[in-house]
Amino acid sequence: MIKKEDDGLSFKVDASGSGQRIDKFLTFRISNTSRSYIQNIINQQKIKVNGSTVSKHYRLAKGDVITVKDLEKTAGAEIEPEKISLNIVYEDTSLAVISKKAGILTHPTPHRKNHTVVNALLYHYKKLSNLSGKDRAGIVHRLDKNTSGLLIIAKDDAAHSLLSDMFKKRLVKKTYAALVWGSFSEKKGEIILPIGRSGLDRKKMSISIDRGRDAVTKFEVSEEFGESTLLDVHPETGRTHQIRVHLSYINHPVIGDEIYGTKQSQKLARDLGLARQFLHAKRLEFAHPVTKKQLKIEDRLAGDLQKCLKALRRREKMSEK
Prior knowledge:
By secondary structure, the chain is an alpha+beta fold. 24% of the residues lie in helices and 27% in strands. It folds into 3 domains: 2-75, Structural Genomics Hypothetical 15.5 Kd Protein In mrcA-pckA Intergenic Region, Chain A; 77-169, 2-Layer Sandwich (Pseudouridine synthase), CATH 3.30.2350; 171-321, Pseudouridine synthase.
């Protein structure tokens, strides 16, 4: 049962809601919200159960009373369409694949409601999937702000649901280009280490044996430059900052990574004039969720990354003389 109050909403949990996680329960009962948004306001202690704050993992019981305070204030500004150019690499009636520029967020956050991929999508498309709420309209997976490359966009909820299931079952093969510090004795490798939120810095992720979620990253050497190596990286799971955390842990941080890099890797980035991490989602391979046709979609490296590689190749030629 839902009751509107002067400063928010009140819910009394019935038998159908018993046993559900509170974030999932509220996502389906408060319109125009996503699960990430609900989790965020839980963290802000705007949501209480029987008068007490709870975590997003809380399992509801029949008779629990949930109160949501200052909902409109917490929600912030409405997500508005913006006339931002999109580089559409592939498109059909069910989905699109775009090439995201570095420096732009995939979707809005509590602190940033504009100039994201979602704002651009809302301007360019009349119809997008809404499974994850308007703040993530069309978004099936994400790329970090300073990572460039391919993103799949779902135009309807049916395609979104099928694509999400494919990602969970690891049926979408993703290949990233990553320039990392150091050289490798082997041409191929695999990192199987769980990743979780850092206990020291909530903005960072880290290897966490006890609390982390399973994460698998495969890689192979593409080109060697003495003190750095260009890799083709294949993340089989999709944990936050996965590639960056895994490669940093084995002492091969991504060049230009300000969070997980070292003094050496950051100095090389400065020397090369690279203003962000060298990470680009360059290839996607998957069966179309509706037609089942096998798709292989590729995206050339962004201009700043191409310039970086040219500089490294010139260095290599000079050192050979």
